[in-house]
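Researcher: Please generate the 3D structure of the following complex. Treat every line as part of one assembly.
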Amino acid sequence: MQKGIDAAASSISGSSRYLRPGVWLSRRWSSPWRRPLVLGTFTWIYLAWSILPVGIAMLFSFNSGRSRSAWQGFSWRWYFGDPTGSVLHDPTLHAALIQSLRLAGLTTLVAVPLGVLFAIGIDRWRGRAATSLNFLMLLSFVIPELILGVALLFVFSNLFDFIHLGTPAQLLGLITFEISYPVIIVRARMLSLGKELEEAAMDLGAPPTHALRRVLMPMLYPAIFASAVLVFASVIDDFIIVRYLSLDASTEPMSVAIYNTARASPTPALNALASIMVVVSFVAAVVGILTYRWLTKGERGKNDSAAVNLAAQI
Amino acid sequence: MRRRRRRANEHGIWYPRWYWPGLASPGALWLLVLFLVPLYTVLAISFGTIDPIFRDAVPIWDPLRWNSAAFIDILHKLAGSHSFLLPPVERTLIYVCAATALCLVIGYPVAYFVARYGGKQRGLLLVLLIAPFWVSYMMRMLAWINLLGSDGWVNRGLQLLHLVPHPINWLAGDPITVVLGLVYGYIPYMILPLFAGLDRIDPALLEAARDLGAGRLHTFLRVTLPMSKQAILAGMVIVTLPMFGDYFTNDLLSGSPRTAMIGNVIDDSVLTPGQGTDAAALVILLTLLLTIPMIYYLRSTAKAMREGV
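Model: Done. Output below.
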């Protein structure tokens, strides 16, 4: 297609071979079909700038020396080789890894079901109470995390002081912060599905609970699954809430461990810890995308732009 | 027996009256107890007092007995002769504006290229644009700490090219490092809404503009730019909101009080005994400052939700 257009363009502008290079260039430049070279170069430079630093940091997690900027040979030392400083043997880094995964898993397990039920309920429940609750949910989504983090710290140290700082408080706080993800995604899906199939099921004699469980729920699986992956990745990335609600080093997850040691005296073990989390997130993303595609087989393509738009909001 | 009463919804399907509220209630209860109550607690603490012995913040729950000492104190710190709060607030505004502008200037051409000229590489380009979302923010800052250190690759490269005689100390209170750190951290959140907005512009409209005689520049200024106004605004709000509450980028890339922002002031006072009310009052002021962008973001999220997936 592009080649055909190019050929057409050059035949309009005369056979390009017989033109002086300057004229040829200026004709190429003003051709409405030329590919934007400057813009393309700029985009690739941006992508390199955005991705290479992380790649370099991951590379140095395999450094055999203590430096994070001078390469001294490949080794697994900072992952498990080093008897004191590796991720496997350093108790702080080890605990941080476990805590990140534990918080991400448990938050997903609670926040997604709560959010899905809330989304279905709020979608069908008409009235002022439903509108206010929906507004409250959206507010919990847009509020800057610093504000929510301070608020949660205050409430757990004053009003709900029977909930201990550390894992319990972190979990309650994270679920509050993450519950809006499944709600927004599932509601968006419900609004685009409409009610027709459910109504058809009930016209055919299905009781309401069956219409919900056997007709609506299967159609919501892609959205539920996507929100679970998003919540998991978002908890691994979380910093403000988990830091305020952590008790001591044993309940500080990966992000807090990096924050605490990045400027102090880090070894490549810190890079190794961060690299492990990058790999975990990427596996979650790939599994997520593949499963999502499999679940939505046959309905792809029609709403790509809307999906990107929603993803962009989140 | 009361629960047996049923009600038709607008499509004539019969569900028990309590059915939908019942489904929503666990999540609703959660949000009321663990979102609304904490927000009220901040209010009660900001209008509360400090325990003279334990230095703890003591909330006052009854609005009629609220004590506005903390707010008066903060206004003094903002405007008085020893206004040590004013510089961080000014700095926050300057850094956030600069970083948001840079995000837009860098992000718009990238989003435009991927949306209009992605071609066969579009999928790959999108994956690369989304990739930073899957790398933890702290990891991305750690990467720059490594690169910007005194023997890091940036300094070594500059020395290799003989641009600087000694390594530059990037990580000790340099505002440029902080602003670039913010740009690096938040720009992916700007590009995605820009891409979504630009991608929805029908190419036929651009072709029509060109057919009617508008040049490349005119087509962009008169068609593309006005049609992407919503996306620009959404992208700006999405990156601005977290930047205002950001203190960790500053801590990691500078750590110096010379670049402290309002987030750093809040973070410091939250963790200092005896300053609980101040911290709460600052959080309330920050919330008020961000009300308009928050409402805009809320409305655009509700709109994106209605468009479905």
